[in-house]
Fold these 4 entries.
Entry 1:
Amino acid sequence: MAKACDLKKGSIIGIDNTPHVLETLSISTPTARGGASLYRMRFRNLVTHNKVDKSCKGDQSFPDIDFERREVQFSYENQGEYVFMDSETYEEIQLTENEVGDVRLYITEDMEGLKSLVSDDKVLGIELPPVAILQITETSPSMKGASATARTKPATMSTGLIVQIPEYLANEEIIKVDTETGKFLGRV
C-alpha cells in the first residue's frame, strides 16, 4: 500500500481495482498548528483514459496494482495506429491515438527509453523517458544578438508539439524537451 505522501508524478496505484497513473500533484500545508498537509492529485485511468481528482491527507493509503514495465521501441504510425516493438520478444504492439494520448507529441522514430505499462498481458500505456530529442520544423526567424536569457517564441516540433524556445533558435535545429513539463532544456 502506497501512502499519499510517498507518491510522485508517474506513480501507478489502484483506484477501484483499476490502474491509475498520477499526472499532477499539489500539496497545501496549513499554517495553523496541528493542521495536516492536504494532497490534491489528478490521476488518469489507464484503461478508460478518464481523469480522476482526489484530495486526501498524507497518511491515506492507496492499494498497489500489479503491472510490469517493458522496454519498447516506436516503429511507425499509420492512420492513427501507433506500432511499437517489444525489445525482448520482438512482438508488435498496436495502440490507437486515444490509447497513446499526449505521449505521441514526444515520440520519434527509433526513440530509446520508452516503456510499455503492462497488466494482465494488456498494454495500458506508454511511459516516456525524461528527455525527448525533437527537431524544430516551424518558428519565426532567429534574431541576431538574442541571448539565452532573452524572450522566447513558440516553435512547432516535427511531432506537432509546440514549445517556447529562445529567440536565437531557428528552423531545423534539434533541441531537448522535458517530457514532464514540455519545456525547452537546450540544444543537442
Entry 2:
Amino acid sequence: MKALSLKQPFAELILSGKKTIELRNWNTKFRGNFLIHSSRVSDKKAMKKFGFDILPVGKILGIANLVDVREYKNDIEHEKDKKKHLADTSWGNFGFVLEDVTRIKPLDAKGMLGFWEFEYPPV
C-alpha cells in the first residue's frame, strides 16, 4: 500500500481531524487510500505551536483517503483554506484533500520522500 511521511505534529493533526489538507510542493495524480507515516524527526517549532511535547515518530499511524488535489495559485486561495491545512505558503501550493482518516495500531517503518510502498497489512 502507498504511504506518505509527514513530520509530527502534522501526522497527529491529520489523525485527530484538525488538519484535512496536507500541503506539498509537488502534485500527484494518485487518488485513494494511503498510510500516514510519522517521520523520525519532528518539526520542533510546530510541536510547540500546536501544544505537543512528545508524539510517536518513525511509525505508520493511520490510513487516509486522498480524494483531490487543490492547486493554490495565489495567497488569497491559500489563505481561504488555512483552517484546513494550518500552514503558510512555504509548505507548498498543492493541497492534498483527505477524507476518511482512521488511526491504526502503530507499526515501525522507515520513511521515504514522496509516496512509497509499505506492506499492509503486514504478514
Entry 3:
Amino acid sequence: MGSARCTGRLTGLAVAVPCVAAVVWSGELSLGALLAVGGSGVLVAAVGLIGHAGEAAPPVGRRGLPWLAWLAAVVAWEVVSLVDDDLPTLSDLADPMLAHPAARGAATVGWLLAGCWLVARPGRPERS
C-alpha cells in the first residue's frame, strides 16, 4: 500500500512539474499554458474516472446545493460575458492577478492540488 501511494505521488509530480513550468514560462492566456493546464486536467480526470474516485464517499445531498448555485452563477456569467463584449470574462478579471509568473505557478499548483484531492477520494470498496 505504501509503495502504491509513493508511486502515485511520483506520478503526480511527473505531471505537475512540467505543467507548472509550462504555465510559468508560457505567459498568461497563452496557447502553451492552455495546453499544459488542459492536458494535465484531462490526465487527472482520466485517473479519477479509471479509479472510480469518490464512489465510496457518502452522498453530498443538500450540502452540495450552495456549490451548485456557485457553479451555475459562474457558467451564467461566462455565457453572458461571451455574448456581450462589454462584460469581462473570468479570465479577463483574473489576468491582472496572474500576470506575474510566480502567481501563475502558485495558481496552477493550487489547481493541481484540488484535482489530486478529488482523485484521492475513496473509490469502490474492496470486495473479498
Entry 4:
Amino acid sequence: MADCDICGRPATTKAIIEGATLSVCARCVQYGRELSAPATRRPQQSRPMVELEVVEGYGRIVRQARERAGLTRQELARKLFILENVLERIENEHLKPNEAVAKKLEKELGITLLGPRGEEDRQKPQSFSTGSSTTGRGLTLADLVEIKKK
C-alpha cells in the first residue's frame, strides 16, 4: 500500500474521513471509519472498446420513428429531457446527437442510430499527395502557393 494520506507513515488500511476515502496508518484510522477489505476481487476482464458513430441519415430515421409513434417534437423532447430545438436540429441533421442522446432516442423510438465506426475511419488520416511533390511527404505549403516571380 502507499503512504498514509494524513501523516505520511506507511498506510495499512483505508478509511472514510469527512466523506473522502483515504489510505491511512493504524494511528490515523481513529479519525474516521475504517473500510472493511472486500472479500475477493476478481480482475475485470478487459473488453475491446468499440467506437460508435451515428449512422448516415440519422435525422430522417428519428423523424420517421417519431411520426410513427405519433409524438410531436415537444412530446418526445420532454420524454427524453432534451430541448425541443435540439431535437429539431437533430432531425434536420444540423446537429449530430452525442452518444447519450442517441441511446435515449434508440430506446424511446425502437431504432438504431449508433453503429461501429467504419474501418477506414479508424486508420490514421492520410495526407494529401500531388504529383509535384517529390519528397513523398505529401502536400506542402509550397504546393499550395503560387510564387510570383519578378
